[in-house]
């Protein structure tokens, strides 16, 4: 029997791309109690108080990479709401963003470690990706670099 109450999360995540077009991803720590320990994820995190999702991604990314990316440099990739693809039995409201031209050598990672991945190597690390990171990268790569409008995704598309 599971005595834990259902958990609702409001989160953000960012696909960060460096000056050479490589993905800057987070190799998550192997720590009990965090979501997706040991997996490869996006930088980002939980929304606090009344902050917007954009304010949240700016704050979380700055906290985790030690480099400030202003809000206007984040492009909204998509949003989702429904069953949590990372935590069984939970619900999730999340927004995904993209930030480009970030100098990898200027980062000071405070959570996990930095994993720099060429776009052509994504399939090689796919089995190690956290579900949200896998989903975000699939959406980004399918969309291409055409600046298409923000997408709204149904939860059924997340699994």
Task: Give a written overview of the molecule.
This protein is an alpha+beta fold. The protein has a single domain, classed as Nucleoside Triphosphate Pyrophosphohydrolase (Alpha-Beta Complex). The chain contains 3 helices and 8 strands, in the order ββββαβββααβ. Strands 1, 2, 3, 4, 5, 6, 7 and 8 form an 8-stranded mixed β-sheet that branches. It is globular, with a radius of gyration of 15 Å. It starts with 7 loop residues before the first strand and ends in a 6-residue tail after the last strand. The C terminus is likely disordered.
Give the full name of the CATH homologous superfamily: Nucleoside Triphosphate Pyrophosphohydrolase
Radius of gyration: 15 Å
CATH class: Alpha Beta
CATH architecture: Alpha-Beta Complex
For the termini, the CA-CA separation is 25 Å
> Could you name the ranges where pLDDT drops below 50 across 5 or more consecutive residues?
147-159
CATH topology category name: Nucleoside Triphosphate Pyrophosphohydrolase
Total helical elements: 3
Mean pLDDT across all amino acids: 84
Question: H/E order of the elements?
Answer: EEEEHEEEHHE
Main structural class? alpha+beta
What is the tally of beta strands? 8
Q: How many independent structural domains?
A: 1
The major beta sheet can be summarized as:
8 strands, mixed
Helix content, binned percent: 10-25%
Tell me the strand percentage band. 25-35%
- Give the overall shape: globular
